[in-house]
Amino acid sequence: MFVSTGPNIDDIQSAALADIAAADTLDALEQARVRHSGRKSALAGVLAGIGALPPDQRGTVGKGANIVRQAIEVALNERHHALEADQLAASLSADRVDITLPGDPIRAGAQHIVTQLWNEIEEIFIGMGWQIADGPHVEDDFHNFTALNIPEGHPARAETDTFYITGGHGTVLRTHTSPVQVRVMETQEPPIFAVMPGAVYRNEDIDATHGAMFHQLEGLAVDEGLSMAHLKGMLQHFVHELLGPTFEIRLRPDYFPFTEPSVEVDVLWTDRNGRQTWLELLGAGMVDPNVFAHCGIDPERWTGFAWGMGLERVAMLRHGVSDLRLLFDADLRFLEQFGDAGNVR
Ligand code: 2NL
């Protein structure tokens, strides 16, 4: 006769299988494993008690207990695989990337207003068949001063205006873009039609209208028979292209060491309130024969005109900016206002 000493082996199995089926996480399943097949489980108790049973019962009880042990192990394995698969499916769906969603917007930058102006002016002159030229920012005395008819002792050479390179014996940061014109004349045969944009450097105290670095755009035309009439016609066309066909210019006598005669070019400016004023736009003139001679160009044969303008000044006029320092402060609240797609080239 079968004498049971502990819990019924069928009850052990059904309790274990129910717990395993109910485990809904891998942690819960591990707890069910410890409870039903661990060293302290009811099943382990039954197995351990077999030796103490009467010999004729050991076979039956041992066989039954082993079947239950196997059933529990199979159930644990299956449940483990099922829970792992669930967990994988859950993390795959949680981490899924939806490639059909719109991307993060890219904030479009804005070109600096000096860069916009620089590019627009280049385009106008390229449209007239002119070339764009650049040269060194660190110059020698000859190209920055002497070739341009600025002799020693001239105020433009005063220590206060020019950055001298220490130990450089007359090596300077260029104070204007004119040395690029000198280099073009030294290396090219006329006719020459070229504009020279770029940074220039002055040893100035910085305020609302002065900076130690700013940008100039100069131009040079050298050919046979060029006169002030050509200069004026070219400038009028340039101003119409840059500002609009209603903008008038006027020329007034001025002085520069490198041109003779020299003129100040003003533009009739209409401000936001419709008020009109003549404002200085640039300086210009006929290239001084001494400058041609310094650059290896025969002044008896060739004539030419040149001009120079400050890009910051014109950009400020155009956009109604009253302090030069805003152009150099890298403050996005200022810079982002000029993100006109039409101006980005
Ligand atoms: C101004 C005036 C000017 C020039 C620059 C030039 C260059 C050579 C020969 C002759 Cl190589 N002239 N440049 C001529 C007249 C005026 O600049 O007010 N700039 C901001």
Q: Would you mind describing this structure in some detail?
A:
This protein is an alpha+beta fold. Helices cover 40% and strands 20% of the residues. It is built from eleven helices and nine strands. The chain has helices spanning 9-22, 26-37, 42-49, 55-94, 113-127, 141-144, 178-187, 228-243, 289-294, 311-319, 332-335, and strands at residues 131-132, 138-140, 171-173, 192-201, 213-223, 249-256, 259-270, 276-287, 303-310. The strands form two sheets. It has a seven-stranded mixed β-sheet, with helices on both faces. Strands 2-3 form a two-stranded antiparallel ribbon. A hairpin with a 2-residue loop joins strand 6 (249-256) and strand 7. The chain is rod-shaped, with a radius of gyration of 45 Å.
Write the layout of secondary structure elements.
Elements: H1 9-22, H2 26-37, H3 42-49, H4 55-94, H5 113-127, E1 131-132, E2 138-140, H6 141-144, E3 171-173, H7 178-187, E4 192-201, E5 213-223, H8 228-243, E6 249-256, E7 259-270, E8 276-287, H9 289-294, E9 303-310, H10 311-319, H11 332-335
Helix pairs in contact: 1-2, 1-4, 2-4, 5-10
Bound molecules: 2-{3-[(4-chloropyridin-2-yl)amino]phenoxy}-N-methylacetamide.
